[in-house]
Amino acid sequence: MQQQEWKFGAHQIRHEQQDVLVAVFSGMLNLDDMKRAVEIYSQVAKAGPYFMIADIGNSQLQAEARRYLSDNSKPEWFKGCVYVGADMVQQTFGKVISLGMFLTGKTEFKTEFVKTMDEARAWVEQQRRANVRKSG
Prior knowledge:
Layout: E1 5-8, E2 11-17, E3 20-29, H1 31-45, E4 50-61, H2 63-72, E5 78-84, H3 88-103, E6 111-114, H4 117-135
Parallel strand pairs: 3-4, 4-5, 5-6
Antiparallel strand pairs: 1-2, 2-3
Helix pairs in contact: 1-2
Organism: Myxococcus fulvus
């Protein structure tokens, strides 16, 4: 059976639904933390693309961790990404990652910033409905 939850340091990632991965980051994320997170993202993507909900309101990324995430994430892993609790600096970085995903081959990479986890889940549902309308 595929693993559903990972904990490393003060951080937690859980596979909530087949196409939803929720990451809750607390405190500073260093390079080792980000390597572990990207490894999990890659592993989960083997079953297909998913929506990423990242609660980053209580976290910070070290510069080398930010570079690693940007350099090693693949757009085909994700259906979209929603960040919960991001401040202005985190929003700017999230937009840069989205632009990078778009430029490396995905025709559209949806990114959203919200204040609460409920808003994040609602965004994922809205994206699912939009995808059904497009394909149906």
